[in-house]
Amino acid sequence: MDIQSCVNIQTEWDIVAARQLGRNVAKELGFGVVDQARITTAISELARNIFIYAHKGRVCIEKMNDKGHAGLRIIAVDSGPGINDIRLAMEDGYSTSGGLGAGLPGVKRLMDEFQIVSSQGKGTEITAVKWIR
Amino acid sequence: MNSLIINYIDNHKEHILNLWVEKMKEKADERVLRVVSNQVFVGTSREFVEMVTSNLNDENEEYSERLRDFAEKVVKLGWPISFVTEGIQVFSNIVFDGIKEEKLVTEEDEMKLFYGIYKRTNPMTNEIVNVYSTTWERTVSLQKIALQELSAPLIPVFDGISVMPLIGAIDTERAKQIMENLLNGVVKHRSEVVLIDITGVPVVDTMVAHHIIQAADAVRLVGSQCMLVGIRPEIAQTIVSLGINLNQVTTKNTLKKGMEAALEIMNKKMIQVGEISEDSNIKTI
């Protein structure tokens, strides 16, 4: 059974709340210190993207169980402007906000599964999964 | 109408109280019950009802003081404000329904009755919301000040060497302060090497890394060197996964290692002068 808890992202401090939630869930599931850091960093990136580009949205953390294999799913949803060119956004070093441009491709590398759905003017939904090894 | 309401409440005090406590218990969610024991819950509810009825009797300064005390107490108990304001609404409903049931008013006067109760309970809601928000505002502003105090101090440790220990999450506001303190401090203390210690930073994401890189660049522009120390193994791994290039910044895993490197840059060395004797102070420190 999947258990989900969410944090609304509206201010910069909500990013901290989201990643605290993620860290707690990861700890509960028994992720190691390094994976905990990976998960919290991924949440931080996704939540910050929501804050910067969409201004508000939601980050949900889900416990997963696939045939006795435990995992954690991050779902970041917003109804912001959407991503113009996903392929470009997934390229290292590309940023429209003057950042490092390592956020989205970084999250993909930090997590085991990564999925991005975005339509312009409607919003973006990013799902990322990490399994316990 | 007013005297009717007052009389009704005075005569049915116990009945209203019981009904009210019962109804509020139903409404109280986990959050309330978790922070408040049953005894405190009933006791506070009783006090609350006493307060509402006393409000109907007198409207002087003493009362508003009592109300403020009560509100402060509730805030301390950690009850959600929605629960308290809802409590007042439930109370009004009980009184309204009670008077209606006993047919003390005609149907035409029901609106008047409703308004009469509303007019009396409203100031209570206002006062309680007021106390809640003042308490919160005070807490928030105090925390803001406290946070600023431990924001980003630059500490000169040796001639030409300064340390900036960073603890906690770094947001845009703090990143700005880090940059400012760093540059001002470097110039003021004539530091040649600055060590930024991130042992206490829980998460290093691209934004934090970006700010560190920018700070290091700026420090280089004013003629000094920046060293990033306190990089924990898990942080090192996430930085690599993110693909962040920190080649421009010298990094060390501990402040101690960074300090040794900084002394080397300054052509300085720490040496031990003489033996440490058994009873010397150095050992006890």
UniProtKB/TrEMBL annotation, chain A:
<dbReference type="Pfam" id="PF02518">
    <property type="entry name" value="HATPase_c"/>
</dbReference>
<feature type="domain" description="Histidine kinase/HSP90-like ATPase">
    <location>
        <begin position="34"/>
        <end position="133"/>
    </location>
</feature>
<protein>
    <submittedName>
        <fullName>Anti-sigma regulatory factor</fullName>
    </submittedName>
</protein>
<dbReference type="InterPro" id="IPR036890">
    <property type="entry name" value="HATPase_C_sf"/>
</dbReference>
<dbReference type="InterPro" id="IPR003594">
    <property type="entry name" value="HATPase_dom"/>
</dbReference>
Automatic annotation (TrEMBL), chain B:
<protein>
    <submittedName>
        <fullName>STAS domain-containing protein</fullName>
    </submittedName>
</protein>
<dbReference type="Pfam" id="PF08678">
    <property type="entry name" value="Rsbr_N"/>
</dbReference>
<dbReference type="InterPro" id="IPR012292">
    <property type="entry name" value="Globin/Proto"/>
</dbReference>
<dbReference type="GO" id="GO:0019825">
    <property type="term" value="F:oxygen binding"/>
</dbReference>
<keyword id="KW-0597">Phosphoprotein</keyword>
<dbReference type="InterPro" id="IPR002645">
    <property type="entry name" value="STAS_dom"/>
</dbReference>
<dbReference type="InterPro" id="IPR014792">
    <property type="entry name" value="RsbRA_N"/>
</dbReference>
<feature type="domain" description="STAS">
    <location>
        <begin position="151"/>
        <end position="262"/>
    </location>
</feature>
<dbReference type="InterPro" id="IPR051932">
    <property type="entry name" value="Bact_StressResp_Reg"/>
</dbReference>
<dbReference type="Pfam" id="PF01740">
    <property type="entry name" value="STAS"/>
</dbReference>
<dbReference type="InterPro" id="IPR036513">
    <property type="entry name" value="STAS_dom_sf"/>
</dbReference>
<dbReference type="GO" id="GO:0020037">
    <property type="term" value="F:heme binding"/>
</dbReference>
